[in-house]
């Protein structure tokens, strides 16, 4: 299975999922980043096994992940932490809450998601997933 991620609108609810191409917000805003795990081989949502972890890394541009998805050390992350399942009824949808201290220094970014299910590790990359607008002072 090839893992993919689809960004979802910040107003996402269990029975109201809206797909988006890019998350846009202003520096210094508190925002929830919703995404859905996808099985790209079958073009369907992917629900990892119970107990799986979903680790999210947000890298500022122009610092990019490149094409090597299993690369271990990438510098200049804005955010690196585990996401939470957004809904217990649908483990394909995950959420990462970004706080003011993170978004105030954030720039347009890529997202890399690593799903670990026991010894199975799957990685997905979404380039130019986040567009951040500078706050006017």
Q: Specify the overall morphology.
A: globular
Count of separate DSSP helical elements: 1
How does the major sheet shape up? 5 strands, antiparallel
Helical residue percent band: under 10%
Which class best fits the helix and strand makeup? Answer: mainly beta
Question: What report would you give on this structure?
Answer:
- The structure is a single chain.
- With about 140 residues, this protein is an all-beta fold.
- It has one helix at about 100-105, and strands spanning about 5-10, 25, 30-40, 45, 55-60, 75-80, 85, 90-100, 110-115, 120-135.
- The strands form 2 sheets. Strands 1, 3, 4, 7 and 8 form a 5-stranded antiparallel sheet that branches.
- Mean pLDDT is about 85; it is low at about 65-75.
Keywords:
3% helix; single chain; 5-stranded mixed β-sheet; mainly beta; 52% strand; 5-stranded antiparallel β-sheet; 137 residues
Give me a quick take on this structure:
The chain is an all-beta fold.
Describe the protein's topology.
Layout: E1 3-8, E2 23-26, E3 31-39, E4 44-45, E5 53-60, E6 77-82, E7 84-87, E8 90-98, H1 100-103, E9 109-117, E10 120-133
Parallel strand pairs: 2-10
Antiparallel strand pairs: 1-3, 3-4, 3-8, 5-6, 5-9, 7-8, 9-10
